[in-house]
Amino acid sequence: MTTHTMKALRRLVFMGVALPALLLPMAVAAQTAGSKAAAGKVVLLAGQVTAVNQGGQVRKLSKDDPVFAGEIINSGLGSYVNLRFSDGGFFLLRPETRFQIEDYQYGGPDPSTIKAGQKPAPAQGAPAPTVTAPLVTAATGKTSQTSRAFFRLVKGGFRSVSGLIGKVSREEYRVSTPVATIGIRGTLFTARLCQGQCADRAEINSRLKKAGVNGSSRKTILITTVDEGEISVTARDALNIQPAGVVFFTDEEGTVTTVEEAPTIEQRDQGLNPETCQ
Questions:
Q1: What is the DSSP letter of 94?
Q2: β-pairing, 157-161 with 90-93?
Q3: What is the pLDDT of residue 145?
Q4: Listed residue (100, 98, 259) closest to 193, CA to CA
Q5: What global pTM score does this model have?
Q6: Would you say residue 8 has pLDDT above 80?
Q7: Separation of alpha carbons 50 and 42, rounded Å
Q8: Picking from 9-13, 38-42, 230-234, which range would have the lowest pLDDT averaged per residue?
Q9: Which residues, at least 6 apart from 150, have a Cβ–Cβ distance to it below 8 Å?
C-alpha cells in the first residue's frame, strides 16, 4: 500500500468516523437546547462553572449562557455564578456548589413589566394550589400555563431573591436539601450546607453549643438566614417559619435550632444582592 493511499484512508477515517463522533455531543446539546425554553441564564460568572444535563453531557458555562430544567449546575473552587430565571428570581451560587434545576416552567408576565412594589394578586376564590397549580398573571388576573420552580441543593450554598412564582404560587416553589425543604413567601434568603469537615465546622459547633445543642463533625447542617420576608423550613414533616433576622441551623435528624448570630461566611456575604450582581 502506497504512502498516498495510507494518507487518503486516514482522511476518510477521520471524515467518516472521528468527525461525527466529535460533533455528536454538540449536536445533541444543540437539539436539547432548541427543544425547550431556557429556565434562565447566567448573568455573572467568575471562575469555572459547568452544567450537566439529564443525559450526563457536560458543558462549560459562560456569561449569558442559558440554563435548562433538569440540569445540575456545578461551581468550582473559588467560583461564583449568578443565575437569573425567567420569572425574575435569582440564585447566586457559592464556590463548590452543586445545584439542580429539578423542574421549572414559567408562563406568567415578563417580570420587567411589573412595577416596583407591585404585587401580583392570586385569583379570587381560586382553589388551593396543587402540584400543577397555574400561575396568576399580574397583568390580567387570569391564569396562564402551569408554572413551577423546584430546585435541589446537593452541596454548597447560595443567596437567592424569589421571583414571581414564589410570590404568587408559593406552593409551586421549593428548594430541597439533604436535611430539609425550603419554601418561600417573597423574600431574600440564604442557604448553605455544612457537610463533613466544612471550612467553618468549629464555628458552627460553637454556635450550637451556645444554643444548648451539642455539635458533631458527622452531621450535615443546613444554615438558613433571611434578609427580607420569610421562609418555611420543613424537616421531618415539621413546618418551621423563619422570619427576617432569624438564623436557623437544621440537622439531618430534623432538629431546628435558632442561633443568636449567623456564621462569619453568611455575615460576610450579607451585602451581596443577587439582583445587582450582574
A1: P
A2: antiparallel
A3: 56
A4: 98
A5: 0.78
A6: no
A7: 11
A8: 9-13
A9: 102, 103, 104, 173, 174, 176
Hey, what's the cell of 113? Answer: 413589566
Closest residue by Cα to residue 87 from 167, 21, 196 = 167
Residue 91: name the closest of 182, 24, 211 by CA.
182
Q: How far is CA 73 from CA 68, 82, 146, 152, 190, in A?
A: 10, 11, 24, 10, 17
Q: Which residues are within 8 A (CB) of 268 and not within 5 positions of it... i.e. 6 or more apart?
A: none
Better-scored residue on pLDDT, 143 or 2: 2
Of 137, 136, 131, nearest to 149 by C-alpha is 131
From 33-47, 76-90, 132-146, 216-230, the region with the lowest mean pLDDT = 132-146
For residue 214, give the C-alpha cell: 451539642
Nearest to 30 by CA among 62, 64, 66: 66
Higher pLDDT, 113 or 266: 266
Q: How far apart are CA 213 and CA 131, in angstroms?
A: 36
3-state helix/strand/coil string of 162-186: CCHHHHHCHHHEEEECCCCEEEECC
